[in-house]
Amino acid sequence: MQTLNRRDLLRWGACLAAGAGLSPWYGDVFAKGLDQLASHRVKVLWLTAMSCSGCSVSFLNTQDPGPVEVLTELISLVYHPVLSAIQGSDVGKMINELTSKGGYCLIVEGAVPVGIPMACQFEGKPLTDVLPEIIRNARAVIATGTCAAFGGIPSAEGNCTGAVSIREFMEQQGLTVSERLVNCPGCPTHPQSLLGTVAYLIAKGYPPVNPKLLTPDMYYQHSVHDECPRFHYWEKEVFAEKFGDDGCLFKLGCLGPLSHTHCPRSQWNGGANWCIRAGAPCTACTSENFAKSRNFPFYRKSEKYYAVNYTEADRKGVS
Ligand code: SF4
Ligand code: SF4
Predict the structure, then answer these.
(1) What dihedral angle (degrees, nearest 10) is formed by the CA atoms of 105, 65, 183, 202?
(2) Least packed by Cβ within 10 Å: which of 181, 208, 213, 233?
(3) What does the pLDDT look like over 58-88, one tens digit per residue?
């Protein structure tokens, strides 16, 4: 039962928008979406494939609105493998019922192990068997985290599971991707972008996305480099030579020009801090190549600029 009034919804919508540096227009859109979610007109189903559950933990670290408000007042989360008390065959019955009605918003965390289907099971059946029907009947599908969005660590070079992203899985199954799947990458996904994307989808339909990556522009249009507080050092070519130094972190391995997300605006844990402010180079955790190759450069201390294949477009954060 919805306990929120219009003023509460507008407040949470405005908080969500302001937290990511979005205009007040988004606040009104988010409030409209939250209204439908809070009144159970649209239900949310969360399923997990191959993942570390980091995106679930990140979602629970949401602030303004906090986890209690999100879970008990704002969204009708009918099932989450870690948070829900419902177990066993009751889960299957509940999901069958939901699937037959359709119209729900599906969030999937993790990559799908198509090479070893039994590596990821649901009610004793491979997830690869049950997922297509659940996806087909969903109103919208959100791939949360870089594993779900792009394959991420489970599909890294040398893996034996044949893990693929939700997009690849949908394409393999002949399921419609266009105007249905939204990718919200990140390792983990920021809770604001996940909740905001769900609210936008419900209120306005499919959002403007990057045509190649299917990431919503409102959160993933600009690179970390574009909005980095150390960008002035980059321009002046003042580089940190060791951890703890002032300066741009590029020589310590920063991949900010290759990562598109809203970290510089939102920061993490309610704005407490974030990678670059803490002096840690960005590892481009939202990029499609994150951790894919064996020699992915998490940190490349002392390497030279040319060690990373930056283009001029990358440098400007527009690629
Ligand atoms: S390279 Fe990294 S630290 Fe330097 S300006 Fe870009 S994002 Fe900031
Ligand atoms: S700053 Fe970079 S590595 Fe850190 S969370 Fe943001 S995108 Fe990921």
Answers:
(1) 40
(2) 208
(3) 999 999 899 999 998 999 999 999 999 888 8
Nearest ligand to the C-alpha atom of residue 251: 1
Q: Is there an atom of ligand 2 within 6 Å of 220 CB?
A: no
* DSSP H helices in the chain: 6-19, 24-38, 54-60, 67-69, 89-101, 127-136, 146-150, 166-172, 191-204, 217-220, 231-236, 263-266, 312-316
Question: Is the entire prediction scored with pTM above 0.85?
Answer: yes
CA of 275 to the centre of ligand 2 (A): 6
Any residues with CB less than 8 A from the CB of 297 and at least 6 apart, and which?
A: 253, 255, 303, 307, 308
Specify the CATH architecture of the domain 222-319: Irregular (4.10)
Q: Is the CB of 256 under 6 A from ligand 1?
A: yes
Q: Which fold has domain 6-219?
A: Rossmann fold (3.40.50)
**How remote is the CA of residue 237 from the centroid of ligand 1, in Å?**
11
Domain spans, the chain: 6-219, 222-319
